[in-house]
């Protein structure tokens, strides 16, 4: 019985992890589901989002990001100011030890300015992230519809709570 149970659990985990087509590891960090919101063909700006799970005992920091699609790439946060949601550049994005940092619409995000090419729906583009401890990693960001919500978000949080 125990054997059957572990086999079932094993296949369940296999199914869960295969749902994340885009997963990257750098040092003790795991980056899941990088995506970008579709923008009009004439847009000068775009944004990217992803989850970072820090499996280490040490806090890390996202220091910078760069991409060939844009002349300028910044780390951004959304915050309430004078009763309005505004976004502004931040120096770093904290990646706390044994925790999940989710970059998502309305929160932290990567912002691209002066687009050299506007990524089309269904395409991917390259994004290089540099972390203080884990170092640099190049990831592929998939362009999704403006209404897209990452399906794995809940599962990632559930897995995280099991640690
Ligand atoms: Cu922004």
Automatic annotation (TrEMBL):
UniProt entry tagged with the keyword Signal: yes
Protein name: Copper resistance protein CopZ
InterPro entries: LpqE-like (IPR007410), Lxx211020-like (IPR058248), PCuAC_sf (IPR036182)
Keywords, ordered alphabetically: Signal
Pfam entry (one): PCuAC
PANTHER family: BLR7088 PROTEIN, COPPER CHAPERONE PCU(A)C
SUPFAM superfamilies per record: DR1885-like metal-binding protein
Keyword Protein biosynthesis recorded: no
Signal peptide extent: 1-21
């Amino acid at each position: 019985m125990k054997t059957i149970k572990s086999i079932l659990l094993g296949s369940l985990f296999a199914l869960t992890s295969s749902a994340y087509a885009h997963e990257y590891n750098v040092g003790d960090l795991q980056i899941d589901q990088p995506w970008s919101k579709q923008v009009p063909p004439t847009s000068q700006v775009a944004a990217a989002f992803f989850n970072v799970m820090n499996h280490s005992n040490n806090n890390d920091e996202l220091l910078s990001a760069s991409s060939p699609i844009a002349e300028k790439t910044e780390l951004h946060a959304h915050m309430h100011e004078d009763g309005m949601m505004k976004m502004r550049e931040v120096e770093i994005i904290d990646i706390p030890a044994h925790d999940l940092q989710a970059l998502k619409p309305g929160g932290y995000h990567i912002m691209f300015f002066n687009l050299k090419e506007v990524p089309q729906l269904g395409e991917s583009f390259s994004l290089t992230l540099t972390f203080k401890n884990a170092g640099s990693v190049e990831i592929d960001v998939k362009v999704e519809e403006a209404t897209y919500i990452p399906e794995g978000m809940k599962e990632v949080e559930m897995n995280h709570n099991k640690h």
